[in-house]
C-alpha cells in the first residue's frame, strides 16, 4: 500500500510540474543540431574554380585563345602528336556519339537533329577548308551553334574525332569526283 501511494504521489508531482510550465516558452532540446539543419542556398556560392596556373592531371594547357586569331593560329600550326595511334573503331564510335547527331554519319550535315528541325545551319565537311588544328580548335572551344567539347572529351579522344572528321572529308571528296 505504501508503494502505491508513493507512485501516485510521484505521478501527481510530475503532473503538477508539467501544469506549471510556461507554454509560451519553447521546450528545451537535448541536441538541437539533430532537429534543425542549418539553412543554406544551393546556388548561393559559385562553384569552385581551380587555382590559377594549374594544369589538369594528364593534360597540357591549350595555347590558343578563343578568338579568330587563335583559330587561325591553330589552323596553321596545330598538328596531332606523332605518337598518337589512330583507332578507327574508337574514333567512329566517338564521332557517332558527339558529332553525328548534327553533322550526320557521313559528314553531310544531315544528322538526326537537322532532319527534325532542331538545329539549323550545320555545315557538311566536303568543300570546307579545314585542317587538323582548326577541327581541334572548334572541338575545344565550339563555334557558332556548336558547343565546346573540351570538358567532355580527353585530349586523345578529341584527336581521334579529328582524324575521323578528316577521314569523312576524304570520303566525301572521293564521292564528289
Q: How is this fold's topology laid out?
A:
Blueprint: H1 2-19, H2 32-35, H3 68-77, H4 88-98, H5 100-103, H6 112-115, H7 132-141, H8 155-176
Fold and architecture overview:
This protein has 177 residues and is mainly α. It has a domain at 68-176: Cytochrome c-like domain (Cytochrome Bc1 Complex, Chain D, domain 2). It is built from eight helices and no strands. It has helices at 2-19, 32-35, 68-77, 88-98, 100-103, 112-115, 132-141, 155-176. Helix 3 runs antiparallel to helix 7, helix 4 (88-98) packs across helix 8 and helix 7 (132-141) packs across helix 8 (155-176). The chain is elongated, with a radius of gyration of 33 Å. The termini are far apart. The relative contact order is 0.12. The mean pLDDT is 83.
